[in-house]
Amino acid sequence: MSLRQQQKTNTRTKIKTIAKHAFLSQGIEATSTRHLSDQAGIAVGTLFVHFPDKLSLVKDIFFDEMDAALRVAVVAQKVSASPIDYLLQMAQVLFDFYDEYAEFTRQVLLDSLATGGFHTKQMAVISDGIVKRFKQVGVDEKTASIFAENMLANYWFVLLTGMPNNLLGEAAVAHLNRMNLPFEMSYRNALKHHKSS
Q1: Which helix (H) or strand (E) segment is 170 a member of?
Q2: Whether 167 and 77 share a structural domain
Q3: Are 120 and 113 in contact (CB under 8 A)?
Q4: CB 191: neighbour CB atoms within 10 A?
Q5: CB distance 17 to 9 below 8 Å
Q6: Which residue range forms the structural domain that includes residue 178?
């Protein structure tokens, strides 16, 4: 890496560190780009060279922090065979993260929903994980997909009702679990039938 590239990387990292602290302590909306550039010791124009707008800076920090949280969770989690256990594990990690970064989450999630971004892709990955677990016990693809769609609809309901109040912790995961009990029973029945076959 050239000296110029290293300086650019260092400046970008410094901006993100300062912005993360300011956003968490003052709030995203209350933090001006002028304040961030002053704290970083750079011109406002330089800030915009690295991040074209405040949302791109928010998203960059959000995704870095989410990746770190998911990596830690993946290492700590046991492999779950049950689709509901899998969904609850993912929800626990994501809900805890969303609560910790509530203002970030609102801005990034709204942008993602509007543009078909990361959250849409994340839900597709979780859906595939649910379908795979149902298919392993003999549930056909179409039924497994319908189950996954309904389980994710329940996830969305819990997420969207809990997010405005920063209530996505244990109670939200328990609510999600209760909402998905019919799918858990379907899984257990299919598992019982699959084992006896």
Answers
A1: helix 170-179
A2: yes
A3: yes
A4: 18
A5: no
A6: 53-196
